[in-house]
Amino acid sequence: MNDNLPVPINVIVITLKFIMKFTTNDLNVFIRFAKKIMSNITFIMIKPDAVERGLTGNILKDINDAGFNIRALKLTKLSIDEAKMFYSIHSERPFFDELTKFMSRSPIVAAVLEKENAVSEFRKLIGDTDPSNAKEGTIRNKYAISKGENSVHGSDSDENAKIEAEFHFSGREILL
Ligand code: RTP
Ligand code: MG
Predict the structure, then answer these.
(1) What pLDDT, in 10s, does the model give residues 24-70?
(2) For residue 2, what pLDDT is reported?
(3) Are 129 and 154 in contact (CB under 8 A)?
(4) Which of 16, 49, 67, 167 is most buried, by the most CB atoms less than 10 A from its CB?
(5) 99 within ligand 1 shell (Cβ under 6 A)
(6) Of 123, 140, 153, 168, which residue is the catalytic one?
(7) Which residue among 150, 152, 167 has the greatest number of ligand 1 atoms within 8 angstroms of its CB, and so is best to mutate?
């Protein structure tokens, strides 16, 4: 008996097509799942001006009342170099020096928040960068001092939320 019978080519093709279809489907499911997780997460900071004035509790309550779940949280302090790194996208802007000195002046509270469409939902909750333009009831409208000292930071995209969360937290500090 011949143990080395060749496998017909059409059997090989059908098997390969089956494996490829299976893995492509799996990959698509995984990509959809990853995108869903990413769009549910944002990174935020309670800035020095708000921590200094004892507003951390009020702001965390506003965040909670707006339906966000806290997935990571810590009190920390940025060095001037860390502030420069974090806000490097603004390095050419005239307010960069003022911004990085302010952000490293005293402790901040950093957090990762979860909610559907977290990035845009959080930016709605905090309001315009300049508190004089921020809608009534938004966090910046209620607490910010000025356009520079505006009490809170929120990521501006899903990609940046991931980068910023990883800047402040190790994987085991984020409880998803
Ligand atoms: P953030 O990144 O802190 O959430 O603020 P944002 O998106 O609303 O505003 P962005 O344009 O990214 O600016 C970053 C921070 O820089 C300070 N800033 N100062 N003095 C000024 O004209 C000025 N403009 C911006 C603010 O602290 C702003 O949040
Ligand atoms: Mg920004």
Answers:
(1) 777 777 777 677 677 899 999 999 999 999 999 999 999 999 999 99
(2) 52
(3) no
(4) 49
(5) yes
(6) 153
(7) 150
